[in-house]
Amino acid sequence: MEAAQQKAVAVYPSLEAGRMQVQQGQQLSTIPASHPKANLFISGEEFDFADNRGIQSLVIQQNFNLPKTTKVLRQFYSAQTQVAQAQLALSEREINGAVAMAYFDLLYYQQKQTIIQRQATLYQDFEQLSQQLFKAGETGKIPLMTAQSKRQATDLSIQQATADYQIMLRQFNRWMLSDTLFAPSEVTLPPPEESATIDIEQHPQLQVLQQREQLAAAQVAVIKSQNNPQLNTGFRLQTVNGQFPFYGFQLGVNLPLFTKATQRKAEAATLNIAINKAQSTATRLQLENNYQQLSLQMKRQQETMQTLQGILIPQAEEQQQVLLEAFQQGEATYFEYVQRIELLIKYRFQYLDALYQYHFANNQMRYLLVD
Predict the structure, then answer these.
(1) CA distance from start to end of the chain
(2) Cβ-Cβ contacts under 8 Å for 172 (sequence gap 6 or more)
(3) Radius of gyration of the chain (CA)
(4) Is the peptide bond before 256 cis (omega within 30 degrees of 0)?
(5) Which of 87, 154, 168, 364 holds its CA 20 to 30 A away from the CA of 140?
(6) 253 DSSP β-pair partners
(7) CA nearest 10: which of 130, 92, 97?
(8) What Å distances lie between residue 108 and 119, 156, 176, 185, 354, CA to CA?
(9) What's the CA angle centered on 168, arms 166 and 173, to 5 degrees?
(10) b/e map 116-144, b = 16+ CB within 10 Å
């Protein structure tokens, strides 16, 4: 299963897109300082066309953002990268959980085939015994007809189980995007194992929300940085009363006069921080609640399996064997024997279903927790 998960994580398109988003964010977080466009223009002062008097200037003007503004922007891009990384970790976890569940589905249908085949063997033996007793005149035709009917119905169940297994096999391989069908090395669902302790605070779903909270804070800082002052610089190459060259310069600060709109935008963006905090709290509560429910579900399934495996299935197997001998000796009816076969198969399917539900809950706990 681990090999299938690794392959799915390596080739699944949505994860590849997530990795590119992380790479994009990393590149943006290291960009050099950006500044407004430079202004290049010609100006004239006290200019007299007749006497060619006055001042003509070729001016280049450039405003510079302060280092604080550039730092805030880089922090914003860094926060975007952290969100992308957290989202990628969550997506990988979801893919791993889906692959694991597809793997357990495959083993379930494979084990179901085994149970039905064992059922078919019991009915085949019953049919052969009924045939022998009928020929010997020790029983009527009804037991033989019943055995043949049960065996034919089981043959149909085997065909259906085989078709279900092939469907599950293709769904399992769909996650690996391969034309080659990979089959599991195991043939049965693994026995129950001790569930791992889950650190709710480290769950990727919470990590995504926490990173979004930091991104919202960084976005507020970017909006507020629009009111930061800018350094204003300029250089002039001049002609004065026909004489050339003269030089001039300017140095100043651009200050925002109207900041109310920017403040309103920052206040609105601040609400995103509170929204993400509320979502984190709600998600944490849901994770803890689901963890408790899944733990109880796993415990209940374990108790069911213990009863079936330790008591009911051994009893049914013994009763089936005893009734087979009793039927052969004429001390039990065919109906009693068929009932014991059906009861035994019922218990085996109940054990398989309980084991599957255990792994389903364990998989939800380990990978997903929140639907």
Answers:
(1) 22
(2) 4, 99, 102, 103, 105, 106, 182, 184
(3) 38
(4) no
(5) 154
(6) 231
(7) 92
(8) 16, 18, 20, 13, 11
(9) 95
(10) beebbebbeebbebbeebbeeeebeeebb
The tens digit of pLDDT for each residue in 132-153 reads: 888 877 777 888 898 889 889 9
Cβ 51 vs Cβ 232: under 8 Å = no
The answer to whether residues 66 and 233 touch, using CB atoms and an 8 Å cutoff, is no
E-assigned strand segments in the chain: 39-48, 53-65, 230-240, 243-254
Q: Do residues 47 and 196 touch, judged by C-beta distance below 8 A?
A: no
Distance separating alpha carbons of residues 322 and 343, to the nearest angstrom: 14
The DSSP secondary-structure symbol of 181 reads: P
Strands, DSSP E only, in 197-292? 230-240, 243-254
The b/e string for 238-263 (b: 16+ C-beta within 10 A; e otherwise) is bbbeeeeeeeeeeeeeeeeeeeeeee
Burial class (CB in 10 A: 0-12, 13-18, 19+), 305: buried
Cα–Cα distance for residue pair 82/221, rounded to 1 Å:
17
Question: Looking at the predicted structure, is the pLDDT value of residue 49 above 70?
Answer: no
- pLDDT tens across 226-250, in order? 888 888 899 998 888 877 888 888 8
> Across residues 8-27, what is the average pLDDT?
83
Q: Which two tokens stand for residue 184?
A: 């599991």
Stated pTM of the model: 0.79
Dist. CA 197–CA 199, nearest whole Å: 7
Centre a 10 Å sphere on the Cβ of residue 185 and count the other Cβ atoms it contains. 7
Nearest to 340 by CA among 122, 24, 103, 25: 122
